[in-house]
Amino acid sequence: MKYVSTRGSAPELEFADVLLSGLARDGGLYVPAEWPQLSRETIAGFAGKPYHEVAFEVIRPFTGDTMPDDVLAGMLRETYSAFRHPAVTPLVQVADNRFVLELFHGPTLAFKDVAMQLLGRLMDHVLAERDQRATIVGATSGDTGGAAIEAFRGRERTDIFILFPDGRVSDVQRRQMTTASEANVHALALKGNFDDCQAMLKGMFNHFTFRDKVGLAGVNSINWARIVAQVVYYFVAGVAVGAPHRPVSFTVPTGNFGDIFAGYVAAQMGLPVEKLVVATNINDILTRTLETGRYETRGVTATTSPSMDIQVSSNFERLLFEVAGRDAEAVKRQMDGLSQSGAFGLPPESLSAIREVFAAGRADEAAVAQTIARTWREAGYLADPHTAVGLSVAQEQGASQTPMIVLSTAHPAKFPDAVKAASGVTPALPDWLSDLMQRKERFEVVANDISAVENLIETRARALAAEA
Ligand SMILES: Cc1ncc(COP(=O)(O)O)c(C=O)c1O
Ligand SMILES: N[C@@H](CCOP(=O)(O)O)C(=O)O
């Protein structure tokens, strides 16, 4: 399997190189040259299979010669046996024909663990084979950072630097990033918002001297391996409610468009998906784009679902590439428009192709609080604010014969203040995190200055490589 860049001028790569390269060298994102197909029989055969076995069948077509089948199968078994629920991503029914897909049973209580736990193992494997080290830099609005640190802490071949927006993540999220004691972990609180963190990260990938000197690798969803690992639970959940014999819809709390793009990939591979519903909070650039056909950035407002306080949704570029018939020049023009004027318009054909598969809705802060309260009262189900954005938007879609699966992207205990304010219930952290608030924190505050942050990373990475 070869991978191509959405901007058309970076070299085509194999999976192992895509895994280590993060952003393509032309600034684009890698996607597979073609979508592997799973037959109806294969999909039907997923029913009742353990999660890691479905994961093998879904992921295997993407990995090419990166590793032998038995190594991948063993890695997947090990990855998902560490999840705290036997089903890994269980489904809970909350209303007629409406289900919540709980993706938060990994070590850091967010859906990011599903992919990140695998990514850590995949990268270790490839780096060991090549006898190489990598410097990982990640940008987070709260959850990617904790999940990445958990997946890479103490790993010998990687140093990990996480940029998070100072003061804009929950206490639990911050502590999950700042309490790791391993020398290879560096939490950096950036004076800015998530978009500043993500723009700085992309700036580093586009600064080739720095990129090559430190062996820069990415763990955000710009990394294709993150997306592919997330495709699995769409199949698992879809089959659990009757696919491929009936279609299924998903509502996805959305920020960087990675999670919902994984749903799009599942549909491309053969899962019968009726609708993918983009659920945004009041930082609603994607919902506005689907309504108006114009992608236009505005300021970011802090909300009770901070992980979705995002304006520039990286993975939307992957969808633009698809709906433009893989016309990389068109995507490049749109992205140039975005960097020059903060906006671009979608051609009518692209917009209607998007609307065929996707719907969208937003939930404001009042709707989020009401949804947490109502779901607790009526279904006895305690949702975190991100999941509540999804539940609120799914409710607005109205009744349908097609099962609607709402992705629950975080455990309510990550956001206890908002959940308590809405429902009166304080969600408790699970045992293994119960002392999180007492652990010692270690992080540095950094200015929104790419040269200064690059210097810091280079110095630290060099020191750690010398010790290794
Ligand atoms: C809890 C939570 N929900 C939803 C999202 C949005 O997911 P995506 O960025 O893949 O759209 C995020 C962040 O990515 C998150 O951390
Ligand atoms: N919501 C995310 C933002 C980064 O998204 P990613 O999926 O590209 O890593 C977070 O929690 O950090």
Proportion of residues in extended strands: 15-25%
Mean pLDDT: 97
Compute the number of strand runs: 15
List unreliable stretches of 5+ residues.
none
- Helical content stands at 40-55%
Determine the structural class based on helices, strands and strand pairing: alpha/beta
Shape estimate: globular
- Which small molecules are bound? pyridoxal-5'-phosphate, ligand LJ64HWYM
Largest sheet: 6 strands, mixed
- Stated plainly, the CATH topology of the domain at 88-109 and 224-423 is called Rossmann fold
Cofactor: pyridoxal 5'-phosphate
Catalytic activity: O-phospho-L-homoserine + H2O = L-threonine + phosphate
Keywords: Amino-acid biosynthesis, Lyase, Pyridoxal phosphate
InterPro entries: Ser/Thr_deHydtase_PyrdxlP-BS, Thr_synth_N, Thr_synth_N_sf, Thr_synthase-like, Threonine_Synthase, TrpB-like_PALP_sf
Description:
With 468 residues, this protein is α/β, with parallel strands linked by helices. The chain has a domain at 88-109 and 224-423: Rossmann fold (3-Layer(aba) Sandwich), CATH 3.40.50.1100. The protein is built from 19 helices and 15 strands. The protein has a 6-stranded mixed β-sheet with strand order 3-4-14-9-10-13, sandwiched between helices. A 5-stranded parallel β-sheet has the order 8-5-6-7-15, sandwiched between helices. β3 (91-95) and β4 (98-102) form a beta hairpin. α3 packs across α4 (69-81), α5 (112-130) runs parallel beside α6 and α5 crosses α10 (224-240). Residues 140-145, 220-221, 255-256, 258, 307, 314 line the site of ligand LJ64HWYM.
Question: Which key terms come to mind for this protein?
Answer:
468 residues, binds pyridoxal-5'-phosphate, binds the ligand N[C@@H](CCOP(=O)(O)O)C(=O)O, 46% helix, globular, five-stranded parallel β-sheet, alpha/beta, Rossmann fold, Thr_synth_N_sf, 19 helices, six-stranded mixed β-sheet, 15 strands
